[in-house]
Every structure is written in C-alpha cells, then in structure tokens.
Write a structure and sequence with these properties.
It contains 6 helices and 9 strands; from the N terminus they run βαβαβαβαβαβββαβ. By secondary structure, it is an alpha/beta fold. The longest helix has 21 residues.
Length: 193
C-alpha cells in the first residue's frame, strides 16, 4: 500500500515509518523541516517537505503521492515537558487547522482510509476542544481515531521512567498502530494493559 504519514519525524513517526517500510509499504513522510529530509530517506520514506498550515501545498503533496492511507501523527509539542503548557495553543491549532487541511487533501485525492492520532486521557479547555474537533472530523469521514496513552521510551518525555496511566511504550504504540491499517472506522485506545 501507499501510505502518506504527516508527523513522520516526530517521536512516534520515527518508530512507525521504518515498520511500514519493512512491511513492504511505499511511504511518503511529510515534514516541515528541510533538515529532516536525510532522516526520512534513511528510514526508507519518500521525503515531502510541506507545512501542514499551507492547505494548497498539502493538497498538492497528497494528491501527487496518491496514497491508499493517510496517517496523521502530527503534534506541535515542545522539546521539554516543562514547556508543555505554553504549547497548548500551538498543539490545538495543529489538531484543528492541520487536521482540516489533511482531511481536505485526503478528500481531494480520494484517499480510502484516514488514521489520526488523539489522546487517551481527559484534557481541559482549548486542548479538549481541539481533540474533540479532530475526532469528530476523522470519524465523520469513516476514519480511525487512535487514542494513545502518554508515550514513554526512546525520544519521549519519559525516557527513563513511566508516566501516570494511561500510558504506552512508544515502540508498542508504533507496532500497534501498524496493526490498524485495515481496521474498521472507530476509536481505538492504545495503552498499557
């Protein structure tokens, strides 16, 4: 299958892309940073440099790649956990506007399946509204919403300890995401048992 992954160089994307490639899929990895092109090539993906907030560019990129599946693993999170609160507005914008642009591109390119990242814990305020928007929009297109627990392991905020529940190791989260490629529409929680 041809799989277009937005957020391909994030903590989870870096785990998912090599698994997709190893499974024989043709993968396009979208990043907004030219400096991550080499990383995507090393992982076996076709790099696509594109800002998700540029709706026309996103539409062209998805349309030209012609994916069977669009996988939305986008977030806009800081490098340090202590700065997370300051990024609430940025991450909410990613979930709203980024999702809107990706779904419009998927519709234009007649993508058969959309899978999108969400969270398995309750949020408040603007973050909660943005998550609700993302989930509603994806489910209204018969897509799959993946509610991940807090990630721990390599490259996460919790490299050496486990966060509070709900949680999931980043490697298990990636592996279990690949298992959803043929899942029916709905909401799936990926958390430790």
């Amino acid at each position: 299958m041809r799989i277009f992954i937005a957020g391909s160089t994030g903590v989870l994307g870096r785990q998912i892309v090599p698994l997709l490639v190893a499974a024989g899929h043709t993968v396009a990895g979208m990043t907004r940073s030219q400096s991550k092109v080499a990383l995507l090539r090393e992982m076996g993906a076709e790099p696509i440099v594109c800002d998700v907030f540029d709706a026309d560019a996103v539409r062209r990129a998805v349309f030209e790649f012609k994916p069977d599946i669009l996988l939305n693993e986008l977030t806009d999170l800081p490098d340090k956990l202590d700065d997370l609160t300051e990024h609430t507005t940025l991450n909410a914008r990613m979930r709203r506007e980024g999702t809107r642009n990706l779904l419009a591109a998927a519709d234009a390119a007649k993508v058969s399946q959309v899978i999108a990242q969400s969270v398995a814990w309750d949020m408040k305020g603007e973050g909660a509204k943005a998550v609700a928007f993302l989930e509603y929009e994806v489910l209204s297109r018969d897509g799959i919403v993946v509610r991940y627990g807090q990630l721990y392991g390599p490259g996460t905020y919790y490299e050496h300890e486990k966060p509070a529940q709900p949680r999931i190791s980043v490697t298990d989260a990636a592996r279990r995401t690949i298992e959803l490629l043929h899942a029916p529409c709905g909401v799936v929680s990926i958390v430790d048992k």
